[in-house]
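[job 4471] stage=fold_predict status=RUNNING
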Amino acid sequence: MENVLKLLGKPVVSIYNGTLEGFVKNILVDKKLKKIAWLEIFDDENQDEKILDATNIYALNNDAIMIKNNEKLYVANTIDTNCINPIGYKVYNINGKYENKITDLVFDEKLYVKSIVLQDDLLLDEKSVLNVGNNIIIKTDETVKIQYFKPKSKIKLSINKEEKVEALEEKNAVIIKSHPNKILTAGYEFLIGRKVGQNIYSETKQLLVKKNSKITNQIIDIASQNGKLKELTTYSVI
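[job 4471] inference complete, writing structure tokens
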């Protein structure tokens, strides 16, 4: 068993790539508090943030978190995780009484949450959790279910014929889902390890890559997303 708080600050090392990817900044679990899903990582050397799919973790019980490779390591803010860090969440019962707050999570080797730790080393019974909201946990006894509070009727809106046609067209429209941008290195691996000779800016004058930064997979990815691979190559120095 391991505690979430003990993971914070641990180095993350890629076994296949042989690189230190950064240090754990935050832990994210699914909204049902069942399993650790993502790790937020800060790369101190390059001053950038990444997010790691927890399924890529190989080992985490010792001094460093070892990951298989950096295939499932993404640039921060390119992934909608729909997950939370419940540490600090306040616990209220169904009658509105404040009971405690979450201070830690205990999980097993498969990253499943086994215990929800409260102040004074008390434990929150998972079966008593009625709902997980924004910064709060609502607790109840087993006889009350969340369905009891579900709205019984939907608001019906009258729509005219044209609106019906538009709704039908929208329903039948082809939806193209964009996939998160993975770290792109194909064809540009030769840049890794070089330094950037001058600042590289986006079209809106936002600083993308700082001068003297060591080129990594993530920097190549950022340059690729902003159409700056040519500049990155030009300004790279050995």
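[job 4471] summary: Helices lie at 4-7, 161-172, 217-225, 229-235.
[job 4471] exit 0
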